Amino acid sequence: MMRFHVHVGVADLDQSIAFYSGLFGAQPSVTKADYAKWMLDDPKVNFAISQKAGAAKGVEHLGVQVDSESELAAVYGRLKAAGGPVLEEGATTCCYAKSEKSWIADPDGVVWEAFHTTGESTNYGDSPDIAALASTNTADNACCAPKVAAPATSCC
């Protein structure tokens, strides 16, 4: 079995545990004073967060891709349960694919997308400006992620 693994540095562990528990619809399987981990089967992921003094916070962006509209509806419900503002982009073209997607940012500005790919595209497309969702920027040269509080530019 393969699992996607993600580790994210956070500023406030308790606030982030609450956010991710809402997003995933599950409590962490491991919780320590500076660490929490979810071992999820749907989606298959080992997702960990930690709060370390002086460590970098966040990642560029993360995503959950689903295979059907009904799965996407369930993920959209979890985005709303996570407690942050959701940018419902809807039908879009991005990364040479046609998708239905929405975006949310966690308490530290880590950008998440939830999407269902419906076809291919001959052009790259573009990403929304989701400045209203987060107070920090994604990486200056981030590829494929929407820029937070900055104009979107593509690098791929």
Automatic annotation (TrEMBL):
Residues 2-117 form the VOC domain. InterPro entries: ArsI/CadI-like, Cadmium-induced_rsp, Glyas_Bleomycin-R_OHBP_Dase, Glyas_Fos-R_dOase_dom, VOC_core. It comes from the Bacteria. NCBIfam families: ArsI_CadI_VOC (NF041414). This is ArsI/CadI family heavy metal resistance metalloenzyme. It comes from Novosphingobium aquae.
